[in-house]
């Protein structure tokens, strides 16, 4: 990395460490996406939470732009 990008060795080590942190965060996010199951919240009652995507949303402010001449 130092030869290809002209960085100092300490900067290159920092970039590698930052990349490792990103990979660790990406690998650790899976349990948060699945939802939860809580068994026996009360007698005979279980609680389920399921996370599902709602879809893709888009907003545009093209109609708010005004042209002044």
Kindly describe this structure.
- With 69 residues, the chain is α+β, with helices and mostly antiparallel strands.
- It has one domain.
- It is built from three helices and two strands.
- The protein has helices spanning 2-5, 9-28, 30-34, and strands at 36-42, 45-49.
- Strands 1-2 form a two-stranded antiparallel sheet.
- The mean pLDDT is 78.
Total of DSSP H or I helical runs spanning 4+ residues: 3
Strand content: 15-25%
Output mean pLDDT: 78
Number of domains: 1
**How many β-strand stretches?**
2
Q: Structural class, please? A: alpha+beta
Write down the secondary-structure element order: HHHEE
Largest sheet: 2 strands, antiparallel
Taking Cα atoms only, what radius of gyration do you get, to the nearest Å?
24 Å
Q: Label the overall shape.
A: elongated
Tags for this entry?
elongated, 3 helices, two-stranded antiparallel ribbon, alpha+beta, 69 residues
How would you briefly describe this protein structure?
The chain has 69 residues and is α+β, with helices and mostly antiparallel strands. 42% of the residues lie in helices and 17% in strands.
């Amino acid at each position: 990395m130092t030869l290809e990008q002209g960085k100092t060795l300490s900067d290159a080590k920092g970039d590698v460490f930052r990349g490792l942190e990103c990979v660790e965060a990406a690998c650790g996010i899976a349990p948060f996406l699945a939802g939860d199951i809580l068994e026996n919240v009360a007698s005979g009652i279980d609680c389920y939470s399921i996370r599902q995507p709602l879809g893709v949303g888009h907003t545009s402010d093209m109609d708010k732009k005004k042209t002044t001449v």
